């Protein structure tokens, strides 16, 4: 199996080893990827360095943008194929995989269009001096992405990096990366020069660690667990390389007693059930004001009882969890919560014809969850919603800010002043008022505060993250 893209060529790992790809719907291996390691990573980094000195490095911003836009179109032309690959590899329902394919195309369209719209500055300085500040690429950028949205994450991290003229080395997750491999093929078909994008499949502790510590990289971006994020941070610090980290969250949905409850219920449920809860921005804590607690939680419970988990083709509310390891982790947290006496308010069900060996879990609504319980603080990364009551605005803000994380928050209230008061005091990278997620939003800067990480992806801010500045001082007397 040749799944390493290095200098425009598809190669196997130097030592020939492979990793089985598992279908989470039945636990069976159905494909193989190459197990890249340090020597393969070194070749990829060298190819990226060569690309910067060669054809890719000589492209204008407009030319880079055109290539990215062609790739966006290529992805749209192959959207159904990509959706089928993503659905089998990750287990997500087919309509969600189709939405992901459209979203990844959008990243390349957006940043393709933006590539030649990044302007520098001029600075008034001493008489006889002309000073300009120009944006320049970092050079070789390292990208480590997780398994929950492989295609989307590829677009999110890669499109702005290539738009700014970097040459990239991408290490996707060993648990799901087949769509990434296919999109890399489409990138070559779209005319991306050899070495502008290099792909090294493999394990995090091998290919990932080798990439972040490689002295030839100039920047790294990572999305995944706080534990691996800390290792990336250590490696890049030792390498004197800046990094962007996106490490997940425990995002609150705050529902006040004047909220439009009918509008809030489907959004609250979708925010935790989408992708079987394996979303960094999942709304995994539901904070409900005491006066409407019974009524609103009753409405959410009714919606939970109607949820069903099934295979991707059945296109139900959830698919399976991505891997046996993640399945055991989610089930362990659910069982521990039950054993510790946290009440289960409602549970979803399974489709009748589930295959054996799949990693399916029932969506579950727990509450009231004690404020100091693991379920109130730990990112489960499964379809598990923790409900907690609050008394007033002050209490809601305290509770919302009470975890180590700070990625996304939702505020549900019809009171405009409260919308602003609360959103300004929430410790969070994004706040949604009377909506949640808003369709992903390629245009909207995204990233965390506190232990959710730092740096921003998406929107125009990503173009700043993926580049640096050069100040040019010209004396013209
Ligand atoms: P992980 O952090 O181990 O994996 C994410 C990526 O990092 C993968 O590509 C992996 O190969 C790579 N990686 C792992 N160790 C590395 C290292 N030392 N150096 C460089 N790269 C390395 O995530 P996981 O173990 O698959 O998931 C565990 C938990 O992480 C989940 O339960 C969830 O809480 C969290 N998570 C969050 C996100 C997110 O979007 N924020 C995504 C996936 C997982």
Automatic annotation (TrEMBL):
Is Plastid given among the entry's keywords?
no
Identify the keywords attached in UniProt to this record, alphabetized. Oxidoreductase
CDD domains given in the database record: ALDH_AAS00426
PROSITE patterns in UniProt? ALDEHYDE_DEHYDR_CYS, ALDEHYDE_DEHYDR_GLU
**Coiled-coil residue windows:** none
Active site positions, chain numbering: 246
Boundaries of every Aldehyde dehydrogenase domain copy = 15-472
GO MF = oxidoreductase activity, acting on the aldehyde or oxo group of donors, NAD or NADP as acceptor
Which family does the similarity line name?
Belongs to the aldehyde dehydrogenase family.
Matching entries from PANTHER family are given as:
ALDEHYDE DEHYDROGENASE-RELATED
* Protein's recorded name: Aldehyde dehydrogenase family protein
Query: What organism is listed for this UniProt entry?
Result: Cupriavidus necator (strain ATCC 17699 / DSM 428 / KCTC 22496 / NCIMB 10442 / H16 / Stanier 337) (Ralstonia eutropha)
